[in-house]
Here is the input.
Amino acid sequence: MKQFVYSFNEGSKEMRNLLGNKGANLAEMMQIGLPVPFGFTVTSKACAEFYENGCRITEEMENEIFDKIAELEDVTGKTFGRGENPLLVSVRTGAAVFVPGLAKTVLNVGINDETAEALCRLTGNREFAYDTYRRFNAMYAEIVGDGEKGTLQDARTQLLGAVKAAFLSWNSEEAQSYRRHHDFNPEEVQGVAVSVQAMTFGNLGNASAVGIAATRCCETGEKKLTGNFAVRAQGNEADTTNIRQDISRLADNFPKVYEAIQKISGILERHYKDVQTIEFTIENNKLYMLQTSAADRTAEAALKIAVDMVSEELITQKTAILRQDAEKMEQVISKIESGAIPCESELKRNYDTLMEWVDDVRELKVRVNADSAGQAAEAAKLGAEGIGLCRTENMLYNDGKMPMLKEMLLTQDIAKREEMLQNLKEEQKRNFEQLYRIMGERPVTIRLLDLPVTLPKITEMQTEAVIEAALKVSEETESDIKIEILIPMISTLEELRRVKKTISEAAKACTADSDNNPDILIGTMIETPRAALIADKIAAECDFFSFGTNDLTQMVFGLSREAEASGVIENYVENGILSEDPFKTLDTDGVGRLVELAASIGKHTKQKLKLGICGNQASDSRTIDFCHRIGINYLSCPPGRVPAAKLAAAQAAVRNEGKEI
Here is the structure.
């Protein structure tokens, strides 16, 4: 028999897929002995069943819900929607993961004309009773609907209406759009769960309040309780009204409660091993815990909290790495590198500590896309482990030499052509020398111009410029310069062989009279679908592959980069045609399958084949995780993204630890 409803004492934090985060955490707090008002959770499985039955709460589900209401009546000694000691409940919606657009909380379910008067007699506080009734009517009208006056007098109908509204919100336009965009697995996240809990009243009088707090400061990471509370209030009024007070004032108003919250904060941090956001109610000076969840935090706070918790032996270094947001970390890096944060600051020390841990665990090397000395210097400062892509065409554009190249290609004057070729060589050689000096013994991958194979003179010129620059800097600095020459846009094996032959002959001529005989690696871009499909044959002629995922994405999708600039792709994403922009995050189902195939068959041909990726997607954290899993050796990204890419690479290593690659 299916079970659709679980009491809090039947659940745990491990059941969040079934109970949602709210339900699982309420159950967990009850399990560890914290003061949680009793209740139950209608599961995500019930939500799925609701949709399977035409958006109807089945008789089986309804019976389970009211069996649990009967249990709640026994535990509290109150009666639901009737009697002299009436039971009122809250109805809260929650999924296993964050989803926007879900139904808001409905408080005071079970109140009606009869129970409002009973509350008056029970508390001697008519203002409280009818304030509670007013709040219910407003919330119910907003979230469920007004209903008929007679209908709203029936507590059972109120409760089922609130549960149904929660279930229906799972398919709200906002929730559906979010799930599509984030590619939710319906097997793992079936729907929302709904937690029904005995009401406690923060609006009962001056000895009652509601509050929300974080166990550490989520702006700075400082180890102190932060948040707000509001006396004579309900729901989220502690966070939204002008009657709220700073949580530190709680010590003046409710000293014993404040002491209890501090103690509970420590218990929760030790139990969950993370900073928590807690929600609570104080009713007549008695504390009740209503919720706990992992706290949102700034990138700076996340960094400090993680480093501190490692010192406190709450978490491991690997967990600290996983707690960082690679994209948000760029904000911290920007502050540090701009000089806005002093070198001796705690933030800088924490950052350096984290990056040491990152370098200890990651397997992917992180290089940089750099076409100038300025970019290379910036990247070296940020810890780049080489240049993964130097686009020589950009060098010519930046130096204003592209018109000369075009003129040289068109001129019929042989002497003039040779003169121009020599001028271009000297210009490129000067640029390459700068890169080699900055990078030292770190590898520098220089991509040749993408020209027809029938123009070998330019390939010769560029090869000579690369090798002569490397030999000169190697001699001056007494360093072992790593030379990597990259051939672009290959589609056929013969094309590759001819360009490689030209490079090899030019390299041999350059080193003939030199005592220095450096290793020269020759690789190719895999940026056409055909190159990916014949990668096993191409690998026999190469030392390394560099996956150019920008062009590969264009060719696989049949879309130009102009489609992105013109808003076509953004429109496709908004309308659910694409789950995300494939020029920002690698399309693992299509483009990724070609990359994985090429990597696999290339390695089968040449086991020591080195694999890199240098497209825009190379700095995206999900793309980096994919690259780690398929055995890519290095990625190459823009200079400013080097530290974030290192962090994402470390997270991929930790996340996939123990899995076969």
User: Anything to note?
Assistant: Residues 414-439 form the longest helix (26 residues). The chain has four domains: 1-197, 200-297, 299-361, 362-655. The longest strand covers residues 286-294. The domain at 200-297 is CATH 3.30.470.20 (D-amino Acid Aminotransferase; Chain A, domain 1).
